[in-house]
Design goal:
7-stranded mixed beta sheet; single chain; globular; about 30% helix; alpha+beta
Length: about 150
C-alpha cells in the first residue's frame, strides 16, 4: 500500500469524498455533520493523504492545523469493501507519524456517537485517543464523540 499526499485534483478522490459526505449526511443530522468538502480540504492548513493499493484508491485521511501544536484528524475513510482489512490502522499510524513530524503535540478528532461509528471509535481508542470535551469551534452535541491524544 502507498500512502501519499494528495492535491485533490483527480476525479477518483473527488468521487470517493462525495460518497463519504453523502454517507455522513444519511447517518447524521445536518447540524451535526462536520465532514469537510473538497474546498475545505484544499485549504492551506489541511494536509490530505490518499491510500492506494496498486492503482486503486482504498482510503484517505487528513489533518487540519488548529494551532502550531494541535491538529484535527479529518476525513478518515476506507473504501467500504476494504473495511476491517487493516488499511485504517496503517493509514492512521502514518498520519500520526506525519503529525508528529510536523511538530504537532496533540491530535484531536470528532466522530459520530451512533452505533455505526463504533468501529471507528474502537480504532481511535486502540491508537491512544481518549474521549474529551469539544475542542476548537465544536459545541457539545449528542451526535458527536470527541477524542484526543498526545503525539
Amino acid at each position: 500500500m502507498t500512502i501519499a499526499v494528495d492535491d485533490l485534483s483527480g476525479p477518483e478522490i473527488a468521487e470517493f469524498l462525495e460518497e463519504h459526505v453523502q454517507q455522513m449526511r444519511s447517518l447524521t443530522p445536518l447540524e451535526s455533520k462536520h465532514a469537510l468538502d473538497l474546498d475545505g480540504l484544499r485549504k492551506p492548513e489541511v494536509t490530505f493523504w490518499s491510500a492506494l493499493e496498486e492503482d486503486t484508491l482504498v482510503g484517505c485521511g487528513a489533518i487540519k492545523m488548529l494551532d502550531p501544536s494541535h491538529a484535527e484528524l479529518k476525513s478518515m475513510r476506507i473504501r467500504p469493501t476494504r473495511q476491517r482489512s487493516g488499511i485504517a490502522s496503517m493509514l492512521l499510524r502514518h498520519i500520526i507519524a506525519e503529525a508528529e513530524g510536523m511538530g504537532f503535540t496533540r491530535l484531536s478528532l470528532e466522530t459520530g456517537s451512533a452505533e455505526f461509528f463504533l468501529p471507528a471509535r474502537r480504532l481511535y481508542e486502540k491508537f491512544g485517543f481518549q474521549y474529551c470535551e469539544p475542542f476548537a469551534d465544536y459545541r457539545p452535541d449528542p451526535n458527536s464523540a470527541f477524542m484526543t491524544r498526545t503525539v
